[in-house]
Amino acid sequence: MTFSELLGEKLLQHNESGDEYAEISTNQLHDKTVALYFSAHWCPPCRRFTPQLAEIFKQLDNEFKNKLEIVFVSSDEDQATFDEYFKEMPWKALPYSDRDRSIELGEKFNIEGIPTLVILSPTCEKITSDGVEEVRAASNKALEEWSQGKCLFWSREAREGEFVWKNATCNLCYMNPLVGPHHGCTNKECSFDLCETCVPNNKHEHPLVEYLIPKKIYPLETLFKSVPYLLNPNSDEKVETKTLWQNDVKSVGFYFSAHWCPPCRGFTPILAELYKEIQATSHGFRIVFISCDRDEESFKNYHSEMPWPAVPLDAGALLKLYFQFSGIPSLFVLSSDGTVLSSRGRNDVSSKGIEALQSWARGEKLPSPSPDEYQWSYVRCDGCNMNPLIGQRYCCLTCGNYDLCSACEKKGHEHPLERVPQPNDDDDD
């Protein structure tokens, strides 16, 4: 396939002053690597990324720029918005009037969100669809690699026992996904990760730690290896981390929450009252707060509402990555030997109340809920707005991201529905 066949015979290009554009022949892309830039002005992440990409493209050495073109494929809502947005871009564009082709390109390359950069070889073969992520990881180096017909990211097969870190990139060799031991900076101002091979070449300004493998069982001492101390509520008193699991404690709840989150603010006082109730009769269950707040003041004010200790705001990165939660509030309960008693503690507390805490205080799991009792975290019924959805869950694959409870399923839907199996405790909802 040629670019003329893929993109049509004409593209748009700015004049030298940049205030107007004219049609050019798509044949100008001949023998070049082409990055299709799916974007729209109405999309905030696009508006943030476009000027970054534009600056990188302008600064690219001619050695690479002569072999690489970027073509804007718009998802804007009208011609005027397209015209204004295109003024920010020092590259070519598919004519806005060619709406059918824009839609076809989105379907052909399975575009599920924007901004997205799909990199194509001179023969229209896809090199990568991770262009945005590669630019964020390596700036101009990504574009230099594309101009040579290569992608920046690479990876390898996992060996037995190795974990695949799907959302991590090695900042030195650009392995993505990162396979095997994963080292990173826990400073909240940093985003720096290394694979095991690159650790000896590390010159990062902050100390690095090796991340714990999600779902692997570790002693509590190991889970807290990056936590220097705990903070008592209502004071700045520092206490040793080991006090959390000493004195015959049977289990520990890891509570991820933040004051800016309305569901967290609703759940925290409920959990706090139940915790006070169980502490009056048993000290077998403890909770520790790992904050997702954005600043120290919010963290301290929110922690003052809780009757349990907290991990310092800047010391929770290792735990957040280990537990791999998809939303907050989240409550994970581990036994004193590190075995998972519940990865859905919030649901357990909401449905069972004090019974849940009593079970954990004995170091026991709760019985699995029946299909009619199961709560689907972060899932809402699109028929009656039940949130969270409780009981049998049905989804429409045609509509996409459309769920119904059993009562609404019985009312019918325009497309076929499939029942979603109730997950095990180790699965995600």
TrEMBL record:
Keyword Metal-binding: yes
Domain of life: Eukaryota
PROSITE patterns to which the protein is assigned, alphabetical: THIOREDOXIN_2, ZF_ZZ_1, ZF_ZZ_2
Pfam families (alphabetical): Thioredoxin_8, ZZ
This protein's record includes keyword ATP-binding: no
GO MF assignments: protein-disulfide reductase [NAD(P)H] activity; zinc ion binding
Span of domain Thioredoxin: 1-144, 221-366
EC number: 1.8.1.8
Keywords: Metal-binding, NAD, Oxidoreductase, Repeat, Zinc, Zinc-finger
Catalytic activity: [protein]-dithiol + NAD(+) = [protein]-disulfide + NADH + H(+); [protein]-dithiol + NADP(+) = [protein]-disulfide + NADPH + H(+)
Domain ZZ-type per the UniProt entry, residue ranges: 376-425
EC class of the enzyme, as a word: oxidoreductase
Protein family membership: Belongs to the nucleoredoxin family.
Protein name from the UniProt record: protein-disulfide reductase
Species of provenance: Rotaria sordida
